[in-house]
Amino acid sequence: MSHNSFGHLFRVTTWGESHGPALGCVVDGCPSLIGITEEEIQFWMDRRKPGQNRFTTQRKEPDTVKILSGVFEGKTTGTPISLMIENVDQRSKDYGDIKEKFRPGHADYAYQTKYGIRDYRGGGRSSARETAARVAAGALARKILGEGVKIQGYLTQIGDQVIDRNRFDAEEIEKNAFWCPDPVAAKGWEEYLDGIRKSGSSVGAVIEVVASGVPAGLGAPIYGKLDSDLAGAMMTINAVKGVEIGEGFSAAALTGEDNADEMRQGNGKDPRFMSNHAGGILGGISTGQDIVVRFAVKPTSSILKTRDTVTIEGDNTEIITKGRHDPCVGIRAVPVGEAMMACVLADHLLRHRGQQG
Amino acid sequence: MSHNSFGHLFRVTTWGESHGPALGCVVDGCPSLIGITEEEIQFWMDRRKPGQNRFTTQRKEPDTVKILSGVFEGKTTGTPISLMIENVDQRSKDYGDIKEKFRPGHADYAYQTKYGIRDYRGGGRSSARETAARVAAGALARKILGEGVKIQGYLTQIGDQVIDRNRFDAEEIEKNAFWCPDPVAAKGWEEYLDGIRKSGSSVGAVIEVVASGVPAGLGAPIYGKLDSDLAGAMMTINAVKGVEIGEGFSAAALTGEDNADEMRQGNGKDPRFMSNHAGGILGGISTGQDIVVRFAVKPTSSILKTRDTVTIEGDNTEIITKGRHDPCVGIRAVPVGEAMMACVLADHLLRHRGQQG
Amino acid sequence: MSHNSFGHLFRVTTWGESHGPALGCVVDGCPSLIGITEEEIQFWMDRRKPGQNRFTTQRKEPDTVKILSGVFEGKTTGTPISLMIENVDQRSKDYGDIKEKFRPGHADYAYQTKYGIRDYRGGGRSSARETAARVAAGALARKILGEGVKIQGYLTQIGDQVIDRNRFDAEEIEKNAFWCPDPVAAKGWEEYLDGIRKSGSSVGAVIEVVASGVPAGLGAPIYGKLDSDLAGAMMTINAVKGVEIGEGFSAAALTGEDNADEMRQGNGKDPRFMSNHAGGILGGISTGQDIVVRFAVKPTSSILKTRDTVTIEGDNTEIITKGRHDPCVGIRAVPVGEAMMACVLADHLLRHRGQQG
Amino acid sequence: MSHNSFGHLFRVTTWGESHGPALGCVVDGCPSLIGITEEEIQFWMDRRKPGQNRFTTQRKEPDTVKILSGVFEGKTTGTPISLMIENVDQRSKDYGDIKEKFRPGHADYAYQTKYGIRDYRGGGRSSARETAARVAAGALARKILGEGVKIQGYLTQIGDQVIDRNRFDAEEIEKNAFWCPDPVAAKGWEEYLDGIRKSGSSVGAVIEVVASGVPAGLGAPIYGKLDSDLAGAMMTINAVKGVEIGEGFSAAALTGEDNADEMRQGNGKDPRFMSNHAGGILGGISTGQDIVVRFAVKPTSSILKTRDTVTIEGDNTEIITKGRHDPCVGIRAVPVGEAMMACVLADHLLRHRGQQG
Fold first, then answer.
1. Nearest neighbour of B1 by CB, restricted to C9, C79, C82
2. Which residue ranges in chain A fall short of pLDDT 50?
3. Which of A245, C68, C352, D147 is packed most tightly, with the most Cβ within 10 A?
4. What is residue A49's predicted lDDT score, i.e. its pLDDT?
5. A contacts of D20 (beta carbons < 8 Å)
6. A9 with C354: Cβ contact below 8 A
7. Which helix (H) or strand (E) holds D112?
């Protein structure tokens, strides 16, 4: 057991606080002889890093990743890979007020109650900065999965604005600030989120992550089910309040015949599925279809609106949270969700290989 | 790592197939000197056992639990507790047809592809019979949590029929066959589910499980978050396709100010929360509020409707699944969801005590 | 984490007490499609079972193993394998005296202090009966390792009687009651141990277990080193007080040049080693040479000699332990040591395959 | 599972190679509110660091430890503690020859065979430099254990030179270069080891580590036995080939009556033990007596003597290992053994508290 680790054969341990000198992760169990460079990891880091447009936090962090161990002459050696990202733009003075008061909806109160101490600067360990380490680990996981596995995340909803699936165009995802596959929606979201941002408020989002090319057979029933591990992994991302696989909550309203993904003879030895209500997982095991995971992110709890709260002594007070915050932290959750998908799949690929050869 | 275990300090390992001689679990890490009898465990078993009314499978299983180890003179000894439930009503001949064909939406195909073999009798390991072992373990977990923690599950939706929260009455839950807290809805569901059942179809459901009296401080960020462990745990239950904490997916549409659970000075040292959008968990740590988890169960995939599928050789065919099946497996998922809640909370109680004393 | 489990991909959880209704284990992670029958497991059980000659406990236990799950039509299915052995010859009345008194050198005091309760009947969980479950699991592990891996244990010392390595003859091991490879020593041990037994005393032993045919590359530095896992595994066997790999403690007195296992070009791609001081493991990884592990077992603490002790209230008293005990529990530790070797190697075989393919 | 982690509630993950930019560890699960500074950790680092006298490697490493996370305003916060030590004196050119040849008795061959690649510079991951991270973690573990627990390691043997236990004087341990408790032996060892060193050879050693003040009740039978975890932990230290608890291998030759640690009524509720053959552990659980662990370290395999070996292509060759090496790596193993004792005890303290409160 380790509170700050996930995965089993591909195991990631993260460390670091928002305003400490650095954060990072140790990736253990990575197969040897995998070519990897800091530049390749940086490519994924840059997709998550803050301050890239007006819809995310204005904290300026280059999120430059350094490989400290486990890679020799450009290849993994099978030993633990230590990755470090230095914090450079902390501005701790911004956070004076939250030292004494709990932000409603934030982890402040829970950390203080559990540990009797908390690093209040920028949320400390509970800050979304921790997710940078996941993205770094995810870059390695993608290498293990290989070129055949594609992982793509995108927003399907921001606040109460939902995409129109009829306009879904994967090409659009990287063309707007929202990882939005619906170009019409993306346009509208700019104005919508500008309004949220200017009012000092925030909204939530729904992110969908799809992995294609995943071989059948990954996942280890009963308590190592692929969907269980994916649900658990996504729920560890800051602010996530719900996770769905495939049809998700909509499946409750379906009949057995509508929900059944019928099968027909395929070209090779594998059958074709006529639909994918299951989201690519049956009985906790991948079927070879696209793995489809969706998760809901709540609105950022650090807002410029006045809210009732208490001090750490328990007295009534009010709080307005200044500082630099994402008006919708769900946007930057897209590369994080992709990274978690990659890590979970890489772990299960190794686990399956271990048990079944 | 263990595919068939969950929990860390309170650790449950389950074993057994639908049509084998028995199934059971080993519970390790249970504190010593806890009074427990077979009768106390049986009380919870009886809530889940099949064949109690026309809305669940007609398989007759007494689900009699035996304590094989770890309890001495009525008290736990701190050593592993082995619990066994013998299967008595297998009727394996019912399942001849599924030996050669894959049920769409069922784990058949995935197990065969992963393992190259499957115990097709009653679904083997993928059968919901496995959940009996969880309920047995949950009875122990409840003992660890003590009288102060109450765990209550119920259906909020069956098929497309949703309860009216204005009619919510906890007293009603145990008075109908559906664990339904809305007496009007419960009445309507009888006719609705009779229709589904008689047509040979099935529907899904949404289950909500609430734990009250849970102390603040449980949960271990980042990858041992209480909500992550709950999401992972619920997703291991057969047929579950989605999990939410508190506001869940609805949180995406809220603004930061609406979602914030404001705090006011309490009577003692703990503050009062003015709402519970968070579902009792902030930053992965319990806050002392009610823990609220919801999960969606898909419709049973074993139905009397004809569906297209393939044989294990990959040839096109059709299938109708005879045998005894739950028209809505979500009903019996209520005691299972409660048990998983109990197990996860008990584990985190011990983990918190280990780290923080 | 699980106190009563070991291994990672091949994971064994044991349960049961000396005088409970049964004991057993759950083996998780076993690859599918491995042929296994109860008879094959029984073959190994019979080597460990008590009462086979006058040098071991006279408790009569057939140690009949039952497969309760995970095997279908003679083959493993990849799901957990539950194995159960019923206790039939408990005779609990023999143990009345130890209810109130602690046997010096026995786990009685430690269990009572830790748990505040203990199943004093036959030592409860601390009884060597628990090792029956390991032998059952070891039978499965041997199947995973395949025919190419041979595991052989034997005694090299009993009390102060040490074998003469010049007379080492592997053929002799199964021909005497002591798993002794030195026929002259074996002859002498009969008289020696008869004396010990008749005087109501006991002695310790040293067991050596050798695995040949183990592929190079097993073991995962740093904290999953093969020798670390072997040392930990052997030290879990009742009464073991020391473990050595290869040269062991003698290595301390060697010079670097004497201890170096020089290498020469082999016939194939693998080199030949000119000696095996390392015991087949370098840097925590198997080299392809024989794996050589030795462990020391202390004398049985349940003896017919009067010893000073205290009652559970802490008052001074004396104790003589009646009942049926092994005059040298080290003899029956041989099949147990072999089983632990098999389980550790099988686990590492799967782990290596998982990481390195 | 994680190959490069140990412990469960107090969990340490190490990373880094001998000639990489840095090495370090992440300590997870440490309770909050423990006061700790870099200076306090450095105190222990300085006891292990190389180049302090002519009997250890002449590599000059300050081994300056930096706290990167998990400590706020001088106290632990309950979040992961990342500790880093930069390598400053690598001199990689010293190691040119071992790129192409395997040192007999060294991990070179095993790493190459397992991973198909190895960081040959200074032994890469297999270097004893890794143990610096353990000593850093051990400093935290000692804080958890508190002032009441004393851990002291020392050499009882170097090469074939054994101390005289009649001259044992704990005060002497820190007064010589060998952590030797026998002042007469220590004097003789200088000349002895100078001879070994000057001849380009090396010798092994036996280290004893004693922990006093450890509360009774730590250890979790069966597979989490305290002695099993200690044996496994010590065996992960570079070059260790054997581990003993208490009487160890000598216990094999004792009779049951001689080995029994008799008990007498104590002053308080705890009894007094009249001897400590058990080394403070019975049935895998601490008894309150001193925990006594001994381990044997083989001679350094990097020596200036010519040895036969093969190239990575498998051809016959010879090797002399130049560079800076410890003539007896066992000397610097003393602080490492102490650290491992501290880490294992701290972990079990938290585990016991978790289960038993």
1. C9
2. none
3. A245
4. 83
5. 68-69
6. yes
7. helix D108-115
Q: Do the chains contact at B69 and C116, CB–CB below 8 Å?
A: no
Q: Where are the alpha helices (DSSP H) in D199-305?
A: 226-235, 256-259
Contact A210, A176 (CB under 8 A): no
3-state SS string for chain B:
CCCCEECCCCEEEEEECCCCCEEEEEEECCCCCCECCHHHHHHHHHHHCCCCCCCCCCCCCCCCEEECCCEECCEECCCCEEEEEECCCCCHHHHHHHHCECCCCCCHHHHHHHHCCCCCHHHHHHCHHHHHHHHHHHHHHHHHHCCCCEEEEEEEEECCEECCHHHCCHHHHHHCCCCCCCHHHHHHHHHHHHHHHHCCCCECEEEEEEEECCCCCCCECCCECHHHHHHHHHHCCCCEEEEEECCHHHHHHCEHHHHCCCEECCCCCCCEECCCCCCCEECCEECCCCEEEEEEECCCCCCCCCEEEEECCCCEEEECCCCCCCCCCCCCHHHHHHHHHHHHHHHHHHHHHHHHC
Does C1 touch chain A if contact means CB atoms closer than 8 Å?
yes
Would the CB atoms of C1 and D14 count as touching at under 8 Å? no
Per the DSSP assignment, residues forming a β-bridge with C214 are none
pLDDT of residue D325 exceeding 90, the answer is: no
Sort strands C65-67 and C71-72 into parallel, antiparallel or unpaired.
unpaired
Residue C165 CB-density burial (10 A; 0-12 exposed, 13-18 middle, 19+ buried): exposed
Proportion of chain B above pLDDT 70, given as a percent: 98
The series of mean pLDDT values per 10 residues for chain C, 357 residues long, is: 93 97 98 98 91 79 95 98 93 74 96 96 93 98 98 98 98 96 97 95 97 98 97 98 98 97 93 98 98 97 94 95 85 97 98 97
Give the chains touching C; criterion: ≥3 Cβ pairs < 8 Å. A, B, D
Which among C151, C185, C148 has a CA at the least distance from the CA of C169?
C185
Task: Tell me the nearest-neighbour CA distance from C344 into chain B, angstroms.
Answer: 14
C252 at interface of B, judged by CB pairs closer than 8 A:
no
Give the pLDDT confidence of D121-177 residue by residue, as tens digits: 989 999 999 999 999 999 999 999 999 999 999 999 999 999 999 999 999 999 999
Contact status, residue C205 vs residue C146, Cβ threshold 8 Å: no
Over residues B118-129, the mean pLDDT reads: 93
pLDDT of residue A241: 98
CB within 8 Å: A354 and C354: yes
Whole-prediction pTM value?
0.97
Q: Inspect the interface and report whether the beta carbons of A355 and C31 lie closer than 8 Å.
A: yes
Query: What is the distance, to the nearest Å, from the Cα of residue B247 to the centroid of all Cα atoms in its chain?
Result: 20
Enumerate neighbours of B (3 or more CB pairs within 8 A). A, C, D
How many CB atoms within 10 Å of residue C120?
A: 24
In this complex, the residue of D2, D69, D77 whose CB is nearest that of residue A11 is D2
Task: Decide if B295 contacts B243 (C-beta within 8 A).
Answer: yes
What residues pair up with A308 in beta bridges, in sequence order?
A: A318
Residue-wise pLDDT tens digits, D168-223: 999 999 999 999 999 999 999 999 999 999 999 999 999 999 999 999 999 999 99
- Give the confidence band of D95 by pLDDT, cuts at 50, 70, 90: low
- Which residues of chain D make contact with C9, given a CB cutoff of 8 A? 1
Separation of alpha carbons B81 and C149, rounded Å: 35
pLDDT of residue A94: 61
Of C8, C32, C355, Cβ closest to residue A356: C32
Residue C52 has a pLDDT of 80
Rounded Cα distance, C123 and C115, in Å: 14
| Cα D73 to Cα D12: distance, rounded to the nearest angstrom | 22
Is the minimum CB–CB distance between A208 and chain B shorter than 8 Å? no
Task: Report how far Cα A129 is from the mean position of its chain's Cα atoms.
Answer: 12
Q: Do C79 and B119 touch (CB under 8 A)?
A: yes
